[in-house]
Amino acid sequence: MSGKERLPVRGAQGDLLRLVATGHAESRAQLARISGLAASSVSLRVEELIDTGLLVEEGSGTSSGGRRPRRLRVSPAAGLLAVADLGAHHARLGLLDLSGVPLVVEERACDIALGPEATLDWIAASFDELLIAHGPPGVPLRGVGTGIPGPVDPASGRVVSPSRMPGWNNFPVAEHLGAHYDLPVLVENDANLLAVGEARSWPGFDNLMVLKAGSGIGCGVIVDGRLHRGRGAAGDISHVRVRTDSSTMCSCGHPDCLEAYASGAALMDALAGLGIATRRPADVVALVEDGVPEATALVRNAGRLIGEVLTVLVNFLNPDAIVVGGSLSTAEPLISAIRAAVYERCLPLATRDLEIAVTRGGPDAALLGAGSLLLDAVLG
Amino acid sequence: MSGKERLPVRGAQGDLLRLVATGHAESRAQLARISGLAASSVSLRVEELIDTGLLVEEGSGTSSGGRRPRRLRVSPAAGLLAVADLGAHHARLGLLDLSGVPLVVEERACDIALGPEATLDWIAASFDELLIAHGPPGVPLRGVGTGIPGPVDPASGRVVSPSRMPGWNNFPVAEHLGAHYDLPVLVENDANLLAVGEARSWPGFDNLMVLKAGSGIGCGVIVDGRLHRGRGAAGDISHVRVRTDSSTMCSCGHPDCLEAYASGAALMDALAGLGIATRRPADVVALVEDGVPEATALVRNAGRLIGEVLTVLVNFLNPDAIVVGGSLSTAEPLISAIRAAVYERCLPLATRDLEIAVTRGGPDAALLGAGSLLLDAVLG
DNA sequence: CCATCTTCCTTCGAAATCGAAGATAGAGCG
DNA sequence: CGCTCTATCTTCGATTTCGAAGGAAGATGG
């Protein structure tokens, strides 16, 4: 395995490296504008970063009327990040360079019901395999991180009262995963990772609500360009009471939670009750695309319920965009129903410039999000 | 009137002055810790600020085990801020020094139905009177600001679609008020001002929801210690659909808005329907305190409805505290009902450390909030 | 009361940062 | 092509900031 030495940046260098790595700047002039440092200071620090081999100059960018900028990139040899996004039955795992560009991403089957030790050790072993198979020799690992399909206490890195992860409650995930490495370790809720990853694809949108509609319903909140965690549990919308005719008890002990009607798991249950078998939320989307009316009606109803919950949040948070991701997000009726509910019921002032759209960041968005947050830890 | 020269601070001096003015620091050592500057740099800048007469040394603070700090304060002669909080039928007006300490606060009757020009000119005239009567000679006015009981677009300083301010729609309030002065002008929603003012009384609480329950229902949101505006309309909860048996049409054109059941105006209407006349929301509180059962029942129901809306927002934003202000906030059944609803329905994770309490900042909190935001503008 | 500790604040040489001026490299246009 | 314009980047002296060391003032505890 590669070395694990600390990244040799201090003071302003870290800020500049971060700005290049996150894609916020790719020339000295941009760095000066964004960082607030004087152009001369930027030149000096960039020179040093190039000398240490962390930055490289690579061709030139497009002119904006004058001399073309000399494009800066984080060196591929600056380091690697090993990141994972853990789902109920499979995980995406990947290696990123420090600017968040994936070297390799794989999806592998796993089972979180085997418990935290087994699952986390499996993740670590998978990281090792990826590093041996795809890690360029001599490039050090700088950090590891994983997304978790449940609430995570950011301070302790523990899972807290997850509804769909038996045996994981209060397990010190960050500590256990970190024992394999002497490196910064990130453990974060999966919807939050998705939100951070998506945010990179929405420049100029500083306030985002990123919905993850899969087996469960999660939501990551970006306020002022940064992930909002609150006291650790922010973004939960699955246990909001919805307006329905019937009455269903949720696993949380309250009646009529959104999750009990609009989550992928709930839709699969409802279809099963109609004699239609599905194995994964994506199967529901397939049924909708095949024009199965029962599936379409259920999905549309789910979208309406989600949309009604979002109306409250849109009026309150007044975001720039609602981004819908997760395996259900490709179901067209879901998005239309969300749109209809939000635009119909929200204040005109709140929807005036509101965009409601599906994910832009691609299937690896959550991994990019993990990379982004890890970079902060690495350069912190 | 006093002079209007620009405040002679540049660079780090402004940050330090702001930290002292906002009460975040009152000694050189604290300034060094909070600002991140070296202690020596702080000493130099503070020296300069004292020389310019903006800061003064005043006695010494309490020791924490070693030498006592020399307490720093913003000089009373550094400048004045003229601030107002406009309500439907009266306004609070005051003069503050740059650290937000009120020199004088008055409540005067007015009528926003007279239209924006008349009202704003009246505010300006009142400011002039206060300055003549209470402004120390030679102390310059540094900024003016006012709170508005309706939505304000922060970029343009215009009122946008206010529901209770006939004739004000789209009026350029900041521009008109600013024409009287060559100074920074602040125009902000009243609930937002209250939130900023309250935040000063809640140190360590970085995420706050501040409810203003008066004739209308407003909410100011503090995220990460700063006012969250979204695209300008953030914090609206009055037009959320609530779960009720009956059905009432709101002035916004939708059925069953929270405002139509739980605002002071709605309560007064409901009491009038029962043959009980009230003139102001405070009269409703008095009825509750007198044990009038109809009033108590209505107020408790309002609290329950508000609480149910807050459950959604608490799960989502996961704040440190919900602070209830406005003229209805002194009605005990309102708070109890809100507490009951929130604690019953929210996730344990979200309510674990959640405080629900009434205002701490006193009757002038909104004015202090205006002062706080104005200070940012003055030192910006 | 005196030695010791903690905290606050200042002094002073070293290092980082700034800003104005200039050098560099292209775009735009006749 | 040559002229001007604009934007990018560098050079260099002036300024600001840092950080280690030390002095000042009070707390603590015998």
Automatic annotation (TrEMBL), chains A, B:
InterPro entries assigned: ATPase_NBD, ROK, WH-like_DNA-bd_sf, WH_DNA-bd_sf
A Pfam family this chain is assigned to: ROK
Source species, domain of life: Bacteria
Family per record: Belongs to the ROK (NagC/XylR) family.
Name this protein carries in UniProt: ROK family protein
Species of origin: Streptosporangium oxazolinicum
Taxonomic classification: Bacteria, Bacillati, Actinomycetota, Actinomycetes, Streptosporangiales
